Amino acid sequence: MFSNYIKTAVRSLLRHRFFSIINIFGLAVAMALSMVIIMLVADQMMYDRYNTKRDRIYRINSIPTSSKGETRDETATTTLPLKQELLDNYQGVEKAARIMRGFGNMWMEIEQNVNIPVAGYFADPEVLDVFEYELEYGDPNTALVEPYSVVLTRKAAKKLFRQENPVGEMFKVGTEGPYKVTGVLKDNHHKSHIVFDALASISTVKSLEAQAKRGKDLDDWYNYTAGWIYVLLEKTKTPADIEKSLTSIEKKHFSVITNPDTQRKVKYKLQQMMSITPGAFINNPIGPFLPWIFVYFFMGLAGVVMLTSCFNFTNLSIARSLTRAREIGVRKVTGAMRWQIFIQFLSESVIVALLALAGAIVLLIALKPLMLELSFAHLMKWDLEANYFVFAVFLVFAIFVGILAGVFPAVVLSGFQPVKVLKGLNTMRLFSGMKLRKTLLVTQFTFSLVFILSVIVVFNQLQLFLRADHGFNMEKKMVVGLSNTPAELLKTELLKYNNIENVTAVSHVLAAGSTYGEGYKRSLDEKEWTDLCYYSTDEDYLKNLNIPLVASTYFLTESGASNKNFVVLNEKAVEAFHFKSPMDALGQEIILQKDSSRKQIIGVVKDYNHQMLMEKMEPLALIYDTAQQNILQVQYRGAYEDAGKSVEAAWATINPSLKIDYKDFYGEVHKIYDIFFGDLVSILSVIAFLAIIISCLGLLGMATYATETRLKEISIRKVLGSSDGSLIYILSKGFVSMLLIAIVLAVPAAYFLNNLWLEQLAYHVSVDVITIVIGVTTLIIFGAGTIGSQAWRAIYVKPVDNLRGE
After folding, report:
1. d(CA 753, CA 296)
2. How far apart are CA 64 and CA 755, in angstroms?
3. Angstrom distance (rounded) from CA 646 to CA 653
4. Which of 144, 317, 766, 799 is spaced 20 to 30 Å from 234 by Cα?
């Protein structure tokens, strides 16, 4: 019986090739997009699955709380003394492992030092057991015990050393070391939410503390940002048991805060390892993760396109009901039951979906490299690997889509009454009251126009970010990483070259996403500290950026080391400290929160956007601290390539053994915008294009069918003298009215949805008339072209061919 269903379904698809191609192509495109999202979510769900102890591993997160009870956002890092406190004084934890930042580069490829060969962490020896990291070489019991011992990944070992087994080899990490390789991890292709090239023994930190290269973070109960703690629960214990212990520890160490100005209470919170990615958006992640909000966003986009494609199938199936009405009537007269006809039509739908799945897989192979080229995908280290489980999900998804798209037409068509359809009643009248097809088409084009308008808005917002006046000069500048080189030494060497105009040392790139901040007060009697963003600069900073002074002076070369006692504020900071005017602020002192030192205000600069344009302009302090100066900003003349050669020559003179790292200043300032908004424009553009193409395919099928079913009417009208224009108008007016209704619905919807996120940005564009006109015009061009292509056929209809048998 089922083989007959399949044979009949295949014959029907071949008989109506044009409609079948539209359905299969539309579903294939939508399914390919949905399958990319499935692969992304499946990829994230595979993280840490290899760990046999995964159900008992928890990360202890922190929620900082002020003395007034005000809480900050949850952070994945926590206070490191907590580990020993749990193990020594409480039960329920089988093992605990600390992972501490500060060894090598960060996992995220931003602001990395090219002369540091690895990205990694300091870690307890227990890390190898808790996370089940297997060593290819070395002893797991001793690999992370001694100070300055390091375990490398296989990839890092190949990069650093030529030999297969580098255990016993030495290497330096910046100015630290030498470190001794004591182990190499097996390359098992396991996915872990912790990303690193190397793990150094946490016992090294004590040595670095003794050399004053690090603060005493291992013993600081009030530093909740230095590292992460993972606990392996005993088999008989539950998270509730550990939470009781954590509450007791909170009361013991945070009931009394001795220095509210520099200390915060911390509330601990357990997070199951398998809920990290995908998971909630939490600060200080230890590796790449996908927040659920991104999953929902991608699923929503794919769902809209998928529904649009399913609408096509439903629409065309109902439209073809006239040609199949007699078939259904004959089947019922000869004994077919309604459920049999229902299964027949549903099987056709599932076969279409399975054929679309084959096409979608081909499209997926083409789409995957493009997806992985996105800046955000590279940043978050997506790989979108497929396995048997993913392909099984694809198959189930295709069958589900087939049922979803075909269930309504199957219900409707299987309900035809033989008496009515065999009498020749026009089946299309059965749906005249429902107006279902019109509703579906309007919905499709409404979605399409919302996407088109959203793409234009996001593109306009990106252009605003890229072209906005930040209040400082970005032209002909490059950023040079110092890599622990004395700034003044390199600066002096650079200025010997004719095409180097100006050089300044600074802590970090201006307005590029990194924020350094400190608390200040005018008087210790004040209750609250005023948070200021800050940049550590030198005396040439304002000249380099063409930033004007509002009052007094800037740091002077002749002041030398005494510059560290001074501070320069912006106008916003003057207002924040309630000075009457910039002149009133000059000579006043403000107190630095971290060490209670006093800084004299020697100048006030004009406000400029020192943060990303997504944030409003904040109070700013410019300080002078050579220890925090990490880069040089170089103003040059002529071409970037020529200036680069000068920088390379100067670097070779000062640091012949180190690699140089220099980048275009403008590119660094706008990198984050390109990563997020540039990718968003690309994604939404593709989805908008797919949505409108699918909608137009559905419209094309409907217009084709409408023309074919009215050929006799058109022929009669021609015989009676109707003009070509009137025929086009008659055939097009229904579809044009649907386009107009879609425009009326989509414009306010797009305006509302886009304003929801635009209002979260300090500087943003608007959904203006020009944007709406461009979007509506685009939709009309696609829609009119599709409708017109079929309406135009009416001009070439020959009445004699269609009325010959009448």
Report:
1. 16
2. 32
3. 11
4. 144
